[in-house]
Amino acid sequence: MSAPDSQNNDSHSNKLLTLALGAVGVVFGDIGTSPLYALKEAFNGPHGADINPGNILGVLSLMLWALILVVSLKYVIFIMRADNKGEGGIMALIALTQRVFRENSRRKWLLLTLGLFGAALFYGDGMITPAISVLSAVEGLEIAAPALHAYIIPISLSVLVALFLIQRHGTGSVGNLFGPVMILWFVVLGLLGLLSIAQTPAVLAAFNPGHGLAYFQTHGITGLIILGAVVLAVTGGEALYADMGHFGKRPIRYAWLGFVFPALALKLSDLRQSRRFIA
């Protein structure tokens, strides 16, 4: 291999790594916390699952396979192929559907209506998700220091204002700022999961989808209600497709499959986390 070719390959690898780092900081912030509060919702409330080994393995199995099927298979492998000149998101899908059918076609107008409905849901999600995500994260301070309860709302508002002020500098600046922070976050999640697995290796049985199916067989309609909490584990997965135009397919795919998903899977396998949330 000639020296110029080697330099080009190194430059391409460095660019890919930089984009993947930015993607970790921007794309995966929401889904990086979703499985944690999804687990809490599955075992809390009037319709929460009973706390026993079978239910814990069943719910963990459902969440793990939701991440595998919905995010890894649906978004990463299939939906991210439906780009509009490299752009993703609901507006890109609307543009693609308009090319398929002839003018004034009923199917074209039907798909356009569905696309606009999806866009409305996307804007609604964009309005409530930042508040819910930041508030959920800040509420964790109350566990360590109950005296901080009165400061949860002011701290959350301050974080949101700071985030929106930073956003005007562009996606690249946000990615460079939060990329290292999110990498540290996922590394800590993965290490905690590994420590727990070393202590309780039986939790690896949750990767067997049979436990999730068995949960439905033994709980009937209650299993469907719990599935509503399981869906929370994949909230934020749509960002992989929506932010594709900022970073490209490959950096997002590499970041998810090679780093983010393994960290989340390990953390879901942390039984200490399960006991703390469902206590």
Question: How would you explain this protein's 3D organization?
Answer:
This protein is mostly helical. It contains 13 helices and no strands. Helix 1 (3-26) crosses helix 12 (249-268).
DSSP strand count:
0
Number of helices: 13
| Mean pLDDT metric | 80
* Structural class by sheet pairing and helices: mainly alpha
Work out the helicity level.
over 70%
Largest sheet: none
Radius of gyration: 21 Å
Shape: globular
Uncertain residue segments:
none
Order of helices and strands: HHHHHHHHHHHHH
Distance from N terminus to C terminus (CA atoms, Å) equals: 59 Å
Beta content: under 5%
In short:
The chain is mostly helical and 279 residues long. It has helices spanning 3-26, 34-43, 53-78, 90-100, 106-144, 152-167, 171-199, 209-219, 221-231, 239-242, 244-247, 249-268, 271-278.
